[in-house]
Amino acid sequence: MSLVVAALYKFVSLPDFAEKQQPLLSFCQAHDIKGTILLAPEGINGTIAGSRQAIDSVLSFLRSDPRLEDLEHKESHAESPPFQRMKVRLKKEIVTIGLSEVNPNEQVGTYVDPKDWNTLLNDPEVTVIDTRNDYEVSIGTFQKAQNPNTKSFREFPEYVFHQLDPKQHKKVALFCTGGIRCEKASSFMISQGFKEVYHLKGGILKYLEEVPESESLWEGECFVFDERIAVRHALEPGTYDLCASCGHPISEADKTSPQYEKGISCPHCFETLSEGKKERQMEKQRQIELANRRSVNG
């Protein structure tokens, strides 16, 4: 049976966020939902998977709160469970930039629908910025997009301080996986004096879902934070796996490298992997293979 995967977020003031944790967790568990939902004073963010009926029930439960009645979500499908358990976590931020004064509930940039995004990308006056982390950008991004080369979203403000100037970069277009990071990034950039800041509504996932491949300016695949690893146009499953040692997405070409050893190392971590970490990964892989042999032999 195909499972529905629902990605959702909303910036909204939730001073009672901690009180929502247990009722939400219990409701999800009662409907056999798996995934992770983050709650913070600034809103909600999460990805969950379950049956069609179960996902609909959880979305209705969330939208029964008047502050979340217009909560939007994006859907895809998975043949096997992308998550192993259900977690509802309390956080200071639903996406961490590390600056308490950045508040998307007070100001954000201009939303751009996927159907209008190409026009913005083709405008020579627009600086296009991928707000995702370097390992995500490495497997796919939009044509002409700048890569800030960040290891975490916390580094994005430093990139703006050193590489961008409101007087020089008068039109800026931001994008990310599902829309949440670029929404917060747009709020930050406006606070720094940037006047025209645009961001892709619904993120890359909505673009890949709605824009035909023949018209697309997307190149490569889009990294996602579940067991699918990556998706392509029309949200079809991608071709990447994940290195069990460093968490970097690995391609079929990476697997042909002498530095790749299943479950142990890949070209992205081979040279920095400590002997201790390597030994632990070898033992983990040995246990996995042993368990697999046992299940095959019944």
UniProtKB/TrEMBL annotation:
Top-level taxon: Bacteria
Ranges where the Rhodanese domain occurs: 122-216
Cited Gene3D superfamilies: 3.30.70.100, Rhodanese-like domain
Keywords of the record: Oxidoreductase, tRNA processing
EC number: 1.14.-.-
Keyword Signal tagged: no
PROSITE patterns: RHODANESE_3
Biased composition (Basic and acidic residues): 277-287
InterPro entries in the cross-refs: Rhodanese-like_dom (IPR001763), Rhodanese-like_dom_sf (IPR036873), TrhO (IPR020936), TRHO_N (IPR040503)
Enzyme class: oxidoreductase
Catalytic activity from the UniProt record: uridine(34) in tRNA + AH2 + O2 = 5-hydroxyuridine(34) in tRNA + A + H2O
GO molecular function: oxidoreductase activity, acting on paired donors, with incorporation or reduction of molecular oxygen
Region (Disordered): 277-298
GO biological process, one term: tRNA modification
Function of the molecule: Catalyzes oxygen-dependent 5-hydroxyuridine (ho5U) modification at position 34 in tRNAs.
UniProt record similarity statement: Belongs to the TrhO family.
Record-given protein name: tRNA uridine(34) hydroxylase
Species of origin: Tolypothrix bouteillei VB521301
Source lineage: Bacteria, Bacillati, Cyanobacteriota, Cyanophyceae, Nostocales
Protein's gene: trhO
